[in-house]
Backbone:
């Protein structure tokens, strides 16, 4: 199989809240670069990672920090369309899909586990 | 009232430095005195003048430098923590100085309150 | 005394560590990722409501705003403050203990 | 009151496990310096901080990391004698005072809470 | 798949996060501060024993030794490995997922 | 087998860099190939040649440099994460190079396994 033909299943697994640490922002920078490679990209949000997608964030206005959350909305333009959020993680935090800045497929914990298990590369933070 | 501020984490990776800066600015605006800002653990990275954030982001290092100069703040970087992590005079941003841990204890004695920002 | 907590209650034990040792009547400030604990309707809200009966619990409003929680309902008894209020709490409540 | 006469109650509150992060080591460096000031020093161990005192640690032999734990035994020579470990924290981790490298006063959670509440300065990690 | 956990189960949610999503039969390696989870007689030991019934749970021996737990009794079913064993697990068990 | 290694945290403050080093050394000793060690987030601080640990401590930066030179490893430091944190060519230790995030994705494609060490 030639190098060009290699298509792997990549998962970017977001488990951390935004702003308190930089992981959410720098994972997003990673995803934007990953979009330039023809790989099968999955972006997942679980645990505190679901907070990354909360509508109405205003890090710049509130704290002079960087507003990176709107960039999630640009993922569609990069042909990154497989976005998943875990149902249980949303529920524990009192959130629903309607609270999120982008449309995601809400899947339950068992489905998330199966999805993770099917990946070739998992990049997590 | 006299405040001392301890910053335990580096810029960007954790919010600690941002929170400490906002706190410091608010305290100064309210007329309080900040006797020392002490940078310990990974906090020493806040003094690295080579830091060059993206143009649409805040410049954490320069912001501390400017606040320090404007208010005559003592921005103290721990020598031992700094050596370990490669933060020395070679890369020190304006307004920061390298000092010993004794300066942290002294600040704790002299200030009415010591406030810690970390991970 | 003022206790400060800055970590998400879903990720780490910091909030519990604080609540386990904060003397009755002391002040507790939730900021950075700990502001999620102040929002009503979550799995930890009941614990925080109970804490607010025994302590003066505050939440840093700019951190709520940064996280899209500016208009969220807060847990009963939790009071928002801005950075001026944070400084006032430190000045008024004595020693500041950070539960890192 | 002159500067020289100021004696404050300082607490060094250790809540983190050793080796996984540097906090335990750098707090200890802080305590050694603090010993040179005539202050009322209290060193406390709670939550994972009690692991810092576990006997038999060998970070150098196992991982080429720094063996700093023996330094706790030197604190006595620096006239730092007020060491406290929280009973509940030890119990949750299956430890007793006999597992620790230095003699400490084991106090329960309520006593720890009262001790913390009586401090002028708390340095925690 | 190999899942790795490196945080203390008393401090953070990483171990639970992993156990909640690890498919049955996968391998789980506890290292760095997560090795405390492998020691018998703690408040989390029962959870880990249960996990070891559904997964192959390993613990990194050098991290135990560094922490003074070299001779500690381990939770039933948890197997110690050294760095060579860690590498072998990664090679043998497929994708490595780090629960950071 | 081909390994790629991702290091997310700086030296000393977290064990991640130590663990990654021990893993990398073991893999090489066993005859495996390490196609790239990528330093991201605070991991970029592992490349700071100014780091000067105490004499009784390990030298994390130098150790990576030496392992890199000995085995011809590709020690890649993310340019964007490095700029933000002040890790640039000015302070880069021998054996490290500044590269883009694409090198991480490429390593994930090329290697049989990508192993992450972080906080």
Residues:
């Amino acid at each position: 199989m030639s190098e060009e033909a290699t298509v792997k299943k990549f998962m970017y697994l977001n488990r951390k809240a935004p702003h308190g640490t930089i992981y959410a922002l720098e994972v997003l920078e990673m995803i934007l670069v990953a979009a330039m490679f023809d790989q099968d990209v999955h972006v997942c949000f679980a645990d505190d990672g679901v907070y990354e997608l909360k509508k109405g964030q205003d890090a710049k206005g509130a704290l002079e920090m960087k507003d990176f959350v709107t960039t999630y909305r640009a993922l569609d333009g990069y042909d990154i369309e497989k976005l998943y959020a875990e149902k249980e993680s949303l529920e524990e935090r009192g959130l629903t899909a309607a609270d999120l800045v982008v449309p995601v497929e809400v899947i339950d914990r068992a489905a998330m586990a199966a999805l993770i298990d099917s990946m070739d590369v998992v990049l997590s933070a | 009232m006299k405040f001392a501020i301890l910053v335990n984490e580096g810029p960007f990776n954790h919010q600690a430095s941002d929170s400490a800066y906002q706190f410091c600015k608010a305290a100064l605006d309210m007329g309080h005195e900040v006797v020392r800002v002490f940078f310990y653990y990974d906090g020493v990275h806040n003094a690295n003048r080579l830091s060059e954030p993206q143009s649409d982001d805040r410049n954490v290092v320069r912001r501390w430098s400017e606040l320090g100069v404007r208010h005559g703040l003592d921005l103290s970087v721990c020598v031992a923590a700094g050596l370990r992590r490669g933060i020395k005079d070679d890369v020190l941003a304006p307004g920061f100085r390298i000092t010993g841990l004794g300066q942290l204890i002294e600040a704790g004695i002299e200030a009415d309150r010591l406030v810690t920002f970390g991970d | 005394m003022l206790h400060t907590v800055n970590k998400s209650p879903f990720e780490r034990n910091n909030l519990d560590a604080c609540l386990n040792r904060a003397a009755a009547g002391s002040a507790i400030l939730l900021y950075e990722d700990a502001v999620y604990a102040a929002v009503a309707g979550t799995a930890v809200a009941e614990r925080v409501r109970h804490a607010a009966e025994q302590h003066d619990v505050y939440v840093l409003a700019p951190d709520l705003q940064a996280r899209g929680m500016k208009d969220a309902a807060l847990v009963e008894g939790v009071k928002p403050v801005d950075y001026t209020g944070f400084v006032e709490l430190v000045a008024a409540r004595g020693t500041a203990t950070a539960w890192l």
Notes: The radius of gyration of chain F is 13 Å. Residues 95 and 111 of chain F are 21 Å apart (CA to CA). The beta strands of chain F are 2-7, 33-39, 75-78, 96-99, 113-117.
